[in-house]
Design a protein that fits this description.
Chain lengths: 319, 319
């Protein structure tokens, strides 16, 4: 739930006057997203999203994110398309924040993932990977494998507060993951955070992918592994191989995985699990106990990590 | 910022199937309102608001609120109109909560009140009071004068934590207010919470009044006093008599205040100030220090209260 910055009506009117998108009709804060302030904006010409970038986003990276979204939209992916103001710039300033208007996407994100979602999701992920191919600028994935050891180092001393033995278990798992991490798989631009709340569906089809602010240039199959973690576990943390098979088959109908990518799935999934485990662990240890913000339980990803560590090969994922 | 209950897509689809408003196109949580969960809902036939009533709302009172909104809308006030399902009922169940769909209103609420807002606001308030006249059921105002002594009693012991001497100052002020409170002014249905975030403007006109969940049957002029508190003080707590004059003149062009109502304005404003002071004080003392929810400063209303206590008569408000 995210509106961190209030936008005065005067400031908004002045901001909109820089665009050719008509006059304001309605303006409401959106209770979704955790990093930025998002507003739904209706004008006389249509519906848009106004995003104010808050302090967790590095402003020097915003042109890369907006450029990627624009490139993806121009290459057929349904994602928010940055709207340019009259002077040509899409990235602007509002209320002391960097700000951008993007197009509105219809649809609803699935609060409960069903098997029917996983095929369309897989196909959309592959389409994203293909559409991104021609976007030349790159962005290093700060939350990729290089980032995991420092994250663990910052949380190790207090990890056992969350569960006795957790520090030692994570040390062993991370050492294994980093030692077996594949170096030479196909690279590209990945979404890196394609959880259900970032995927809209309408009439059983994907109607849009949103929130590209963790996107980076990394192993494409690692993005698949993130989705396997985010979409294919049941609420009791049982891995649902049917969902995984649907996701992977649909992905491969658009972009077949190489033998090396398939063989790497277990370690890629281990890496994805430890990445979300570590950021959640850090947030868990650094969120004040009385705070009303929802702390996401890091141990949910320990359950996933253990599953992936037990996976003998890609057949564990239905391949 | 308010989405307390997540609505699964299955549950939402089943819920919508009970209505004749078309198929879902988009669904987003709204980061406004503090008592209930609100979602903006687009269907193939238009835009709506879905509200799930959370635990601070007494479910036995919901039919009164929805009936009032329906009555007001039918009598020309632009406010959310409850949408009836096929079986005729507007008040339903969703995800274990009472829930209702209402019509969507365009417009933007003023983050910064300007003098130009105050005339249209006054006229809209008077229109609300007139439109409500034919709605027979009544609702006692739990946060009216009867409620203030119990509220102060619950906060008195710790009031001086907020400011030394506050308990004694409030005791004296409340005794004065209750002793001089008018008993025989015109009654009717009042909004009782018509702050700027509950009033939408579009092109300089009021495009809608929302959030009727504090509405009650009480002195009409008390609603005017609430608006004088909510709209006519500057950020430095100076009373802006120009705004007050605009508000009152526009109100009186629709519904003239009686001599007795005008004469009672100072004590009505004192009462309105202490009402918001007391609920804020209670929330302030009972919100955990680390909580990320915004605690509204009760002392802002002490500043207002002192102004109203110093008002010799209605001329202080520009009359």
């Amino acid at each position: 739930m995210a509106v961190y910055t209030e936008v005065s009506d005067d400031a908004l009117a002045a901001f909109l006057a820089e665009y050719d998108i008509g006059a304001m009709v309605a303006f409401r804060g959106i209770a979704e997203g955790v990093e930025n302030s998002n507003f739904s904006l209706r004008t006389t010409t249509g519906d848009f999203i106004l995003t104010l970038y808050e302090k967790r986003v590095d402003p020097t990276e915003l042109p890369w994110f907006l450029g990627l979204m624009e490139h993806l939209a121009a290459h057929g992916l349904t994602c928010p398309r940055p709207v340019h103001a009259r002077d040509g710039d899409a990235l602007r300033q509002l209320c002391g924040r960097h700000a951008a208007i993007t197009t509105f996407l219809p649809g609803v994100w699935p609060r409960r993932v069903r098997a029917e979602h996983c095929g369309p999701l897989g196909a959309a992920l592959a389409a994203l990977h293909q559409a991104g191919a021609g976007y030349a600028p790159t962005r290093r994935n700060a939350l990729g494998p290089h980032g995991w050891q420092p994250l663990l180092d910052r949380a190790r001393d207090r990890a056992d507060e969350v569960q006795p033995g957790l520090a030692a278990e994570l040390d062993a798992a991370l050492a294994h993951i980093l030692a077996t991490w594949p170096a030479t798989l196909p690279m590209g631009h990945i979404h890196a955070d394609l959880f259900p709340d970032n995927v809209f569906f309408l009439d059983g089809r994907v109607s849009g992918l949103i929130d590209f602010y963790f996107a980076a240039t990394d192993l494409l199959a690692y993005d698949v592994a993130i989705c396997l973690n985010a979409w294919c576990f049941e609420p009791d943390f049982a891995f649902n191989v049917t969902k995984a098979r649907l996701l992977l088959s649909a992905y491969q109908r658009v972009r077949p995985l190489s033998d090396a990518e398939r063989a790497a799935l277990p370690v890629l999934c281990q890496g994805a699990a430890i990445r979300f485990l570590l950021t959640r662990l850090y947030d868990w240890l650094n969120t004040p106990p009385g705070a009303l913000v929802t702390r996401k339980d890091p141990l949910e990803y320990l359950r996933r990590l253990r599953f992936h560590l037990s996976a003998r090969d890609e057949h564990a994922y239905g391949l």
